[in-house]
Every structure is written in C-alpha cells, then in structure tokens.
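A further point concerns the way the authors explain their paired sequence and structure data. For illustration, here is how one protein appears when written out as sequence plus structure tokens:
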Amino acid sequence: MFSIASGAVDSGTMLPKELDLSDTQKANVAAVIVRAAVDGKPALGVGIVHCRDAWCTTGASDYNTNITALQGDKTSGYMNGSNNWEKLVGACEDLKTVTSETIETEAQKYLAFNYCRKYGETNNLTGELRNGWYLPTMAELYTIYKNKTRIDENLLKAGGDQFDYHYYRSCCQHSDYYNASVLVFVDGASDYYSKDNIDGMTTCSVRVLTSGHSRSHCEAGELPQKKVKI
C-alpha cells in the first residue's frame, strides 16, 4: 500500500492495482486514476459513481446558445475541461446574472455539469477531493477509453460503476449547437445527441489529482482514497 504525500489528501492512502479490496476499503475509494502525470499534464482521476443526466434542460439558455469555447473533439479544440463551468457561466444569460442565493436553482438546469460540480458533496468526499470535480471533455473521455480495461477492472474492485460499452457525455458542445458531443465506449467513436437527451447517456466526473497523487508510481487504474484512512 502506497502512502500519499502529505497534503495531497488528508490522512489518505493509495492502493496498488493488484490489491483486492475489503468492504471497508471499497467504501473509502474516491476515484480511479485515469492518467498519470506526464508531458506537463497533471494526473487525472474519475469518480467511481456515475449517473444518467441530460447536458441541460430545454429551459436552460445554453440549450439554443452556440458556446464555441466548449467545442472540442478527441484530439483538438477544448481539451482540458477543468474550467468548463466558468465558460458555461460566461456564455449563458441565465447564469451570468445569478447571485449566491439563486445559483443553485439555476444550476439545476445544467444537469450533467451540476452533477459533476457537486460530486464531492453528493458522495461525502472530504479534504481536497470534496471540490474540483467537473464534466470531462471529449479528449479526457478518450484518455479514459484508451485505458478502459484496466480502469474498469479497478472500478469493479472498488464497487464502482464501469464504463463498459456505454455512451458518455462530454462537456463539449457539438458544432451543431443544439447537440452535445458523446464518446461511445464500444469503439471509442465520437457521436452527438441533443442537449436535453437523457436516454442512454451516462455522466462521469473527473478531477485533477495533485501532489502525492502525481508521483511516478501513480499509474492509470490506481485508486486514491477519501479522507478516512484504511
């Protein structure tokens, strides 16, 4: 069992990919690492709980707004989604004017985005891992797809939701702006569906992992933990 460097996750631990998990350990897994820190990019983790949500409702202003800042594919365009909520707020009239009292009500119109930004709170994560989750780009989903076998193995070990052959939502708007881009985990192909479509669309949350998470032993498929120490 690898210890996470001080300050990365309070009292957390890292589990190597070969370890079978007890029920207690499963309850403490926060994410599976999908990309080690490499080529100037930080390590990236995916939450173990996925859901089915629309990109937005028909009542959201981005439903018929062309948000070019959120357009990207597997290899180009908008590729690092860590600021996608800020880009969304900057483009959508119903979010530009919100106050601290109304933000949560308006955010509910942006279902997949809001699920991800609230992921840590919803799943009782603590320390650094409580915040910073977001809806991935097409490029980030493709990174997951390329390591899918190993990642799914550890999601299964942790009692989490597997990517399997599902269709996963990205934060990327399609060039036909009534639609949002989707990655097909059957074959890694790109597709797109209407922003309000919820049928068969799965959402995962990702987060940059820093400090001890990005050490060289931290490879795709490993499991950073919640605050509770095993």
User: Anything to note?
Assistant: Strands lie at 2-3, 13-15, 31-35, 43-47, 167-173, 179-184, 189-194, 201-202, 206-209, 223-224. Residues 1-15, 212-221, 224-230 have pLDDT under 50 and may be disordered.
